[in-house]
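Students often ask why we bother encoding 3D structure as a string. The short answer is that it lets us treat folding as translation between two languages. Here is a chain of 153 residues written in the first language.
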Amino acid sequence: MIELQTMQLKDVPLVTRWRNDKFIRSISRNKKKISLRETKNWFLDLKYDPLFCKYNGRKIGLIVFKETDDFIARWSIYLMRGRGMGLGTKFAIKALRHMFEFKNLKYIHAMINQSNYDSLVFHKKLGFRKFADCDQDFKLYRLSKKSFQNRFN
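And here it is in the second language, the structure alphabet:
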């Protein structure tokens, strides 16, 4: 069973390890190693609490929503275990539904590295559409609340 659980300050060491995972660093804009202090400061500065994905009681991923405007947030998703099992999609739908319903967001943005084919396919499957070019490597994709509700409700 998939559940969402709010990240707490005690989870900073685990999340720091995840953020420094070799694969995660390779597809991120920031390629440098992230310190425990940086993760703690990052966590304390977020408006929306990050959400762990738990599968059968075990933390397997994290979704972070960063507010960019009154009704817009940008998300990042880290799935550390269970890739290829469909858990990321189930986790994402549950987290997106939570944010659209309870946080009154109208749009969710995702900044995607164009060389990360799996992420592109994943986001398109959820209904994200290309919105803007950020630079040569990264593009901004957008999902509207209305589009999400039409697709998953």
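Translate back mentally: The CA atoms of residues 23 and 80 lie 10 Å apart. Keep this in mind for the problem set.
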